[in-house]
Amino acid sequence: MKEVKVGLLGFGTIGAGVVRVFQQNSQVMTDRLGASIKLARIADLDITTDRGVQVEEGVLTTDANQVLTAPDIDVVIELIGGYEPARSFVLKAIENGKHVVTANKALLAKYGDEILAAAAEKGVEVMFEASVGGGIPVLSAIKENLCVNRFRSIFGILNGTCNYILTRMTDEGADFAAVLKDAQDVGYAEADPTFDIEGVDTAHKLAILIGLCYGTRVDCDDIHLEGISQISAVDIQFARQFGYKIKLLAISKEVDGEIEARVHPTMIPQNAPLADVDGVFNAVRLVGDFVGPVMLYGQGAGMDATASAVMGDVMSIARNQLTGAIGRTPAMAYCPTAIGKLPLKAMSDIVSRYYLRFSTVDKPGVVARIATILGNYQICISSMMQPEGHAVDTVPIVIMTDDAREADIRSALDEIDRLDVVHEPSHFIRIENTIE
């Protein structure tokens, strides 16, 4: 029986999950592939810590070159994470004729063009299903089953840490800081959670999705980015009263040849399918011109779910290798010659509905002054709330707008914040009422 040999770089949590797949489901893989897949070598700086899985003698090494240059290794799995040495290792594996599987969304978002160009020149494949959505097969769905569609929009809940925090805040009325600490204590958030809570991780994933859906390159630095650290329990309570939930969404829309690319907290109707995606789960909702709306939902992270996606890519490469079909499916869903550079729509030109919250002096005429300024910028009020039970001499005013231009909202809020009756900087959250 033919055999495909795999080398693994990085023996952390996901690496241990990959070993578990080999230990528990080798026969399943053989039966589906018609050949055997062998984990031949694992390289990590630490090969003494117990990962809870048994590894055959001679498989572990601290020398990455025993994976990258070994003539018997067919596929290299990169699970180191980060930019370096992951980038150098992946390029070296490609230079040595190895196919590559990675879960490293940051690496792909920043150096994807370089890596894929090197792979094309060497005639090897790079697959990265686990980089977006963990165990959810969203990338393969775009590249295969949905490939005849022009995509109109992407909406994604792509970070389990943020979704867990917002779910806890919604269900329990808890403050952000307290829930973040709990998330760190149970392992759902890193000791330094910045990449997660400030939306950077989500932006990396959105950049990959945009490339696959629209056939265009987007720089992560050009994606508008806001995290969840400024979301308060008060905002979540008001959202509920208006019939909304707050989620950190990755959003992209293609309209008239322009691409929107943004990551920010968003109010969505409580009856929207994405509103039911809670805890550490992820979901991606795509709208194609022929298929219509499609939502894929599942575990966006974790040892087993991510290892499942990684090994699914290994199986795909093994099938292509055994049948002489390497390169059958373009890595970015479009042939390289068809990938262009669509213009990004300026955030100032985005049109949305908005939730606005003000902290003002409790006296007559304040609402009228705020409404006048909004009207001067052609911002229409659809509803308003001025709750009771507020602090002495201070009242929160909450306004929901009709569709408005982002630049007008920001200009109006700048002017309102200069009023002598406003105590604190105003706060706004965008609303997506029409997620298809």
From TrEMBL:
Entry keyword Cell inner membrane: no
Keywords (A to Z) from UniProt: Amino-acid biosynthesis, Metal-binding, Methionine biosynthesis, NAD, NADP, Oxidoreductase, Threonine biosynthesis
EC number: 1.1.1.3
Molecular function via GO: homoserine dehydrogenase activity; metal ion binding; NADP binding
Species: Syntrophotalea acetylenivorans
Domain ACT residue range list: 355-430
Active-site residues annotated for this sequence: K205
Cofactor: a metal cation
Binding-site residues, NADPH: K105
Residues holding L-homoserine: E190
Single GO biological process annotation from the record: threonine biosynthetic process
Protein name: Homoserine dehydrogenase
Pathway membership: Amino-acid biosynthesis; L-threonine biosynthesis; L-threonine from L-aspartate: step 3/5; Amino-acid biosynthesis; L-methionine biosynthesis via de novo pathway; L-homoserine from L-aspartate: step 3/3
Gene3D superfamilies associated with the record: 3.30.70.260, Dihydrodipicolinate Reductase, domain 2, NAD(P)-binding Rossmann-like Domain
Family: Belongs to the homoserine dehydrogenase family.
PANTHER family for the chain: HOMOSERINE DEHYDROGENASE (PTHR43331:SF1)
Binding site for NADP(+): L9, G10, F11, G12, T13, I14, G15, A16
